[in-house]
Amino acid sequence: MLSYLKPGDGSITRLSGQDVIAVYSIPPQGSDDYSILYVVKAPDSQQDAPPYIFKSSMGTKLPQAFIDDFQPPDNASWPARQSPGQTIPNLHIVVSIGSGTGQALAVCQKMLKPMLKHVCSPSEENYALHVTTSETTITDLTQNTFLPQANQGIAQTIILLSGDGGIVDIINAILSSERKPTYLKPTIALLPLGTGNALANSANINNDNTMGLRTLLQGTSKDLPLFRVTFSPGTRLLTNHQQDSQPLHQEASLPVTYGAVVCSWGLHASLVAESDTPSYRKFGADRFQMAAKDLLSPPDGSAPHPYHGRLSVLRKTPDSTEDHWHEVDRDAHGYVLATLVNQLEKGFTISPLSTPLDPQLRLIHFGPLSGQAAMEIMTQAYQGGQHVHDDRVGYEAIEGLRVTFTEAEARFRK
To answer: What range(s) does the DAGKc domain occupy (predicted)?
Structure first.
């Protein structure tokens, strides 16, 4: 917390550390003057308005502890570097207007762009702004702009105002295409504007009120762990709120996709699919709980659907160089989720042993249960991940997962 006198009326203003983006010294070197970048609550409460807006102030003789906490470290990934002689911008801003509750464009206008004016030199302000117009915009951008530049060895920073889906779109567009020996991985800075924001919450990007701006200026780039999913022939990707479908990328004649968050079947997969409609999405993260209630307490009073199939787990074997497959001893399931992240949404700790950008895949699963019993387990996940201590729940580190469907209805094979 920083308190300072407001010029003019002499009133005291308090600035919470949760609101501070960064502190920069103002030239000349050795001066006691600093520029403080921070956010304040926005006065507009409309649904698509940003919750905060960008502000800056000048401070003199700031407490050293405050400077130490908020001055970007020497190894910070910002600023984005422009290659010598390069005319095409290597800083890209991607605004996914369909993510979450539709705040991405407002956050860009009221928070990101004003901040960039403070931290970019005139030459560095040469960034490219991309606003999505369809659910394939990010994929198209990656294939037509980001990947060709990466294949030329050009360093790129992509500021992505999106949810987890935007990251996954970029990953799949890159990994489903040819990468040349000169390929240079782009750096993605995520401003979490999605519904669950599992990656941001699990990587501690969402631990303050700056909506990712502090991490953008102060963070260092790290590799993002991924997993690959192979499907049986004929599998298709559902699009347009499940109204349409398209073929998946193929490797060795089999459909393949890549992920960075979760691979699930059962209750979680169904509630994500069922809630993927405009009528549900307007409720933000609450849409998951609303869909879960409908799935756990069907209107006809029946029990939740048991998901039929065989589940096998690839485990590391102690004192052996080989991993071995083990089949789970049941032919019906309630919840099956393999994950690389700690939280699926803020406060919902699905995998308490997972750490930020942890490459270890972990499995959470349980069999068919009553709606009340399943809700009890899900509630424990909101209590710091206590569900993993429930005897009904399986929780372990795995090297792979195999699901063989025996479901007759397509709705329950998603």
So the answer is: 86-234
CA distance 214 to 19: 9
Residue with tokens 């690389």: 340
Which residue blocks in 145-210 are alpha helix, DSSP H? 147-151, 164-175, 198-202
How far apart CA 183 and CA 29 sit, in angstroms, is 38
Q: Is the pLDDT of residue 354 over 90?
A: yes
Residue identified by tokens 């006691």 is: 32
User: 342 near 356, Cβ under 8 Å?
Assistant: yes
Report the chain's terminal Cα–Cα distance, integer Å: 48
Q: Identify the structural domains of the chain with CATH numbers, from first to last.
A: 2-70 (no CATH), 91-218 (3.40.50.10330), 261-413 (2.60.200.40)
> Distance (Å, rounded) from C-alpha 109 to C-alpha 93?
11
Instruction: Label residue 284 by pLDDT band (50, 70, 90).
Output: confident
3-state secondary structure of 192: strand
The pTM for the full model equals 0.91
pLDDT confidence tier of residue 280, bands split at 50, 70 and 90? confident
